[in-house]
Amino acid sequence: CRCDCERSLALIAWLPFEAWVSLRFMREGKVQTSFIVGGISIGVAVIVFMSALLSGLQSNFVRRALTGQAHIQVLPLKEVVRPLRDHESAWRESATVQAPLQRLKSIDQWQSAAAQIAYMPEVSVVSPAATGSALVTRGDASRAITLTGITPELYYQIVPLPEKIVRGQAHMEVDTIFIGTDLATDLGVTVGDKLRVSAANDSVNTLKVAAIFDLGNKGANSRSTFVALRTAQSLLGLTGRVSDLDITVHDVYAAEVVAQRISALTHLEADSWIKTNEQFFTAVHAQTTANTAIRFFVALSVGFGIASVLVVSVVQRSREIGILRAMGITRGQVLRVFLLQGGLLGFAGAMAGAGIGGSALMLWQKFQLNADGTVMFALTFDVQLLLQTLVLAILTGLLSAFAPALRAARLDPVVAIRG
């Protein structure tokens, strides 16, 4: 008993009175404290686990969607329809509307436009490209392809093509061509074979297959081909010119805003991946909304749990509160006692829940694997997410404790002591 008194006196010496009383109440109600900390821990673990899971899933989806395309593509403006007016009638206008042929066009003064875009702080890389349709032939077999001329040192920073090569080397020459796996199968070619490539303007060139890639999409693998920029310019009749500018930005989710700024700056058409993949981006946004909803309802349930336990604690400790008030404790101090209790419960539950959530993430990474044994998708334990969850749990504890604390502070000492 003497040791307990000495420990209590030592604790009082450096703890504020409100904190000491809060800890005393929590220690005496061990069962209630354990249940509420356990409930908070489960709630926080769900938030941490589901947030990391949905964030990893979303990042994986975005990475796969952008694996074979630029964040923004700048194109020349399309030719518009021009009505032919009938001037014989002053009050009536008749128009013959005919859709113009969208011919392969180049970007006027593309070097200047590329320099303007690269100067923008949101832009990471700008890569010129010459893209058009062509026909590839080997013997009696022929296929329609999309021919893309690139500058390797720039384009590889946008699309990591070397990582997608399954056969051959990423080194590109003026007389070589990169083709997809499905196109290679259709034509029956492999690395080192030669293909005859012809464009709509009757330009023909024979190119050697230097690499075969896999973009993870059957349509792209059977249609997409890559050559050196000068080779594509010669075949497509775009000598010294380019048909589009491929761009990456630092924040992929701000691509549409940056695209609008580029369009206003250069007076060219700028299409972001968000615009061209509208349905996919809607799904990503729905995932973010679902994640927010999960956090809200888990926090709401945790808050009601804390509030209910503290209401019971106030009822059970009415006599102690009355005695403390009779000894001169102010209402503000009583209020702070229960607010601190709510905050401490939230903090303890958040720390335990973060540990449980982190352990669940490690188990997920260990056991949820693809058929080939690789990780399904990368999950990261974000420190910022942990801090946000910790703050959310403490705020939830404080807000949930406010009503019971206010009730305790308003107790009349005489009535409370009489019971």
Account of the 3D structure:
A hairpin with a 4-residue loop joins strand 8 (194-199) and strand 9. It contains 15 helices and twelve strands. Helix content is 55%, strand content 18%. The strands form two sheets. Strands 4-5-10-7-9-8 form a six-stranded mixed barrel, surrounded by four helices. It has a two-stranded antiparallel ribbon with strand order 2-3. Helix 2 (17-28) packs across helix 13 (331-367), helix 3 packs antiparallel against helix 11 (278-316) and helix 11 (278-316) runs parallel beside helix 14. It is elongated. The longest helix has 39 residues, at 278-316. With 419 residues, the protein is of the alpha+beta class.
Kindly state the percentage of residues in helix.
Answer: 55-70%
Beta-strand level of the residues, as a percent range? 15-25%
Query: Which parts are unreliable, with pLDDT below 50 for 5 consecutive residues or more?
Result: 8-13
What is the β-strand count?
A: 12
Annotation field: number of helices: 15
The helix/strand class is: alpha+beta
The chain-level mean pLDDT equals 79
Biggest sheet strand order reads 4-5-10-7-9-8
Shape: elongated
Q: Strand count, sense and closure of the main sheet?
A: 6 strands, mixed, barrel
